[in-house]
UniProtKB/TrEMBL annotation, chains A, B:
HAMAP family linked: FTHFS
A GO MF label: formate-tetrahydrofolate ligase activity
InterPro entries on file: Formate_THF_ligase, Formate_THF_ligase_CS, P-loop_NTPase
Protein name: Formate--tetrahydrofolate ligase
NCBIfam families, A to Z: PRK13505.1
Binding site residues for ATP: 75-82
Length: 569, 569
């Protein structure tokens, strides 16, 4: 038993990003078989695909294999799924495969909050980092503008006579901003007299939580986007009937605002692998993965498309499979990312996470945390998919801790590999890439979804809770019972379900680590995300507007007089 | 005397824009002597100048002559200054001059509200129209994000212990959104308990009204932008001392968010003349013209740069000269735009404007309205600048009405020309261009500003009110007197002044047409726009957040499945 750690020192993400040499975006596009006319460059190193190229890719159809990267029940710092996704793509490229990676767009709120930037890290980053973390190609800003246009048209309708007889107390469409701002969580708007009113309670969510983000990520094309936008429910009238975006006349303007946002953004990884960074919905109240359009374009133009789902497999992968794959994009293999510190938290039954303690070598704690990993693996295998475990190795991880994971996986015949993609880029993920390639080549993928759309909403929720989360049963609050009835009444019962739950436990209680047993999922409330095309079931409280800490990351961000930006990571 | 009207039929702006053939943006840049490496293309037809090109232009210094386009006291539909600016630039190009035009960026709020798009019109448009009117290169979105980051950091500071002892009732930094939304004018934020609070009164302005927009438009470079951002006053502490953006630690992050927005956007007019569309501040609480950086780059690379100022000459041109020209960009000639309908409103002493009545031929009413035009001409001549009158001719204008204006100008020896730039493009503004060229060549420009910075704030305001507006005197409310004292106390008395007043009258009462006499300007309140670098004096009420009408323009906007957008004009 040793406490040796891997011997590598990695410069800061910012330093790596700044000293990287990027290929022209035309060169990157050429790796996908796309010509200069297929892309619309935004500067030298980013582009949006042109509409014609997107249409051609859809016509061409799927060529490559989809690899989904998910993770164990994470710590609040995450397990490093993006690093592994990027590293795996780079590893596959090193093996000579045509590959691309598709990940979510970072949101400005967290960039200035606690988390800092989010585009991978170390030598497995997506570049240009500054652009991707700030305004990028403007997709999220477009969503913010479109979201708030709906709000303005809704309130203007009410103000100007309210022909639709909207019940002012039943306006469910809140406003959106891409910022971490707790002061906007609960507001009153329409104050200042009858010229501005009527006054009513309202609030803001972060743009990533907007249903429009989910719509953008699930729309197959502009026509589908318009259909989805049109049916979004924004309120109910005095009879309790849903009022939609189309009812208030906003479908066309909103879709026009989102036209360009629907076209995938192309950038590159540090090693020049084509990367789609496109869309970024929440993984609890929404489905938590990049746009379907990006996946489709990637699959038409590569042998392998690596993509990721948010949070742990219970939230992100379940939704990817039961919602997104149901629309067409089914993976051939799944990678489950685990970290020593993440497993240690489960082994130590620790909540909240104390990262100093988690940095202390403790192979036994890692071992005690493994059931969480194996639960996720088992669930994913029940989905009919081959699984590979990727241990995302950190500099402080000891050999003994890493061995504890690998040994246990070997015993259970789960392919597993240690990845040093952060410290070494694709080279640190070659073995992982080889394992993934073997699993894909096996052709064993045979996707079995958790429920049928014909099942009742109650049955669907129960299936996810028991099969995926490991709950004994599900209870519904009085409100949830009412909501269920109303959803059936309004014809939303044939939609898939999207369960909102804490990401920090398999259960609905963040303090329960490992694999909680003998527990019942409690559903508090349900509502239709009719545009996205699912019913959201809320369990615990959901925070759709983060706040800033006492010392936000923004304080350390600066820009030199020559335009160099510091402190984004 | 006839009631004949000009015989032309102009397709819709949208139709003209859609059928236009655009040059590649590299070709447009080449007309300015800029190479492919000087620009960062955003697609085929828009670009941002690279930082190096901006720096090189500043080093190169001014080469061309600046022509400022302003107008009479307008109707709410405007006098068509952008059409004349674009048309004049096209006219100068037809005369063989190297020319560019610089105009303001349209704001999304009005695009979806009453006004529709704003990038000129007819055959004097700036293209690509759809992009310019929607997200364009993201500058306004960047401002929105930066503005609200300040708000979030401010409220987070108060929430987390309020070390700066900010007086929660004296937070002057409201939030911003680029939307017309009356429900956001007056709000309460921070509700929902101590996790979100403290609760306080707040409100949103449209992004164009943000002081950050004025800062962006007046900053000479990134270093200057940072200095200006740092000193923006957001609140006062419990001792009444100003609290700045820098105090709350937001300077760097805000400047990083605005880095790219500071670089000018290059597009083209319908006839291929290089056009800078960059920045768009209000013309009452701010100075109402595009960025200084765009003017400087344009003047370094052309013989003529045509630019416009907001509203009538009393508001827009006065501020351009007393604020912007003071920073360096002084015009060689000024064009005052007048319309038959605008003068008719003054002649008929009509408020609010009834556009049906204004469309009825009435040369006498036009003649009776001329004093308003001559007041503006006289004020601009007092500024030491040669003036040309441009009659922006509409299809319904009769020859007799147009002649009434030209004859009166001839009598007073004011160079004047009828422009049909809307209907005929540059061809319809060639005579105007020739007149402007003559005035510029005369070399008579000798700018005399309205006041010295050493004058007291009271003297500066009085000088603008009496010399420019024609008031007898100025009175100050009790609040304004307090504000004046506080501004002196905090060292803001050496700044220029920016008077906010109705644009629909030379006086502070929108119902007073023509040239009101025997009136006193009443100043209600003053505050420092310390980042922009001026003191704002409010007279009447200022609306910084427009509302949507009962049937907003957005209702008629749509996008086809192939991406063609309809209804923007």
């Amino acid at each position: 038993m040793t406490h040796e750690t891997a011997d590598f020192e990695v410069p800061s993400d910012e330093e790596i990003a700044r000293t990287a040499t990027l290929d022209d975006i035309e060169t990157v596009a050429a790796r996908l078989g796309l010509g200069p006319d297929d892309i619309e460059p935004y500067g030298s190193n980013k582009a949006k695909l042109r509409q014609e190229a997107v249409d051609a890719a859809r016509e061409r159809g799927r060529n490559g294999s989809l690899v989904l990267v998910t993770g164990i029940t994470p710590t609040p710092k995450g397990e490093g799924k993006t690093v592994i996704s990027v590293g795996l793509a780079q590893g596959l490229a090193r093996l000579g495969e045509d590959v691309a990676v598709a990940v979510r767009e970072p949101s400005l709120g967290p960039v200035f909050g606690i988390k800092g930037g989010a585009a991978g890290g170390g030598y497995s980053q997506v570049l240009p980092m500054e652009d991707i973390n700030l305004h990028f190609t403007g997709d999220i800003h477009a969503l913010t503008a479109a979201h708030n246009l709906i709000s303005a048209m809704l309130d203007a309708h009410v103000h100007h006579g309210n022909d639709l007889e909207i019940d002012v107390d039943q306006i469910t469409w809140r406003r959106s901003l891409d910022v971490n701002d707790r002061a906007l969580r609960e507001t009153v708007v329409g104050l200042g007299g009858s010229a501005n009113g009527p006054p009513r309670e309202d609030g803001f969510g972060i743009t990533a939580a907007s249903e429009l983000m989910a719509v953008l990520c699930l729309a197959s094309d502009l026509a589908d986007l318009k259909r989805r936008v049109a049916r979004i429910v924004v309120a109910t009238d005095r009879d309790g009937t849903p009022v939609t975006v189309d009812d208030i006349g906003a479908t066309g303007a909103v879709s026009a605002l989102l036209r360009d946002a629907l076209r995938p953004n192309l950038v590159q990884t540090l090693e020049g692998v084509p990367a789609f960074v496109h869309g970024g919905p929440f993984a609890n109240i929404a489905h938590g993965t990049n746009t379907l359009v990006a996946d489709e374009v990637g699959l038409a133009h590569t042998d392998y498309l690596v993509t990721e789902a948010g949070f742990g497999a219970d939230l992100g992968a379940e939704k990817f499979l039961d919602i997104v794959s149901r629309e067409g994009a089914a993976p051939e293999a799944v990678v489950v990312v685990a970290t020593v510190r993440g497993l240690k938290r489960h082994g130590l039954d620790m909540w909240p996470a104390n990262f100093d303690v988690l940095a202390t070598p403790n192979p036994d704690a890692v071992r005690d945390g493994l059931p969480n990993l194996f639960h996720h693996v088992s669930v994913l295998r029940d989905f009919g998919l081959p699984v590979v475990v990727a241990v995302n190795r950190f500099p402080d991880d000891t050999d003994a801790e890493v061995a504890a994971i690998l040994d246990a996986c070997a015993t259970r015949e789960i392919p597993a590999s240690v990845s040093t993609a952060h410290a070494e880029g694709g080279r640190g993920a070659e073995e992982l890439a080889e394992l993934v390639r073997q699993q894909v080549s096996s052709g064993r993928a045979d996707l079995q979804l958790t429920y049928d759309l014909d099942d009742s909403l109650r049955e669907k929720i129960t299936a996810v809770a028991t099969h995926v989360y490991g709950a004994n049963d599900v209870t519904f609050s009085k409100q949830a019972e009412k909501d269920l009835n109303r959803l059936v009444e309004h014809g939303f019962d044939s939609l898939p379900v999207c369960l909102s739950k804490t990401p920090y436990s398999l259960s609905d209680d963040a303090s329960k680590t490992g694999v909680p047993t003998d527990w019942t999922l409690h559903v508090r409330e349900l509502y239709p995300a009719a545009g996205a095309g699912f019913v959201v079931a809320l369990t615990g409280d959901v925070m759709t507007m983060p706040g800033l800490p006492a010392r936000p990351a923004a304080v350390d961000i600066d820009v030199d007089d020559d335009g160099t930006i510091h402190g984004l990571f």
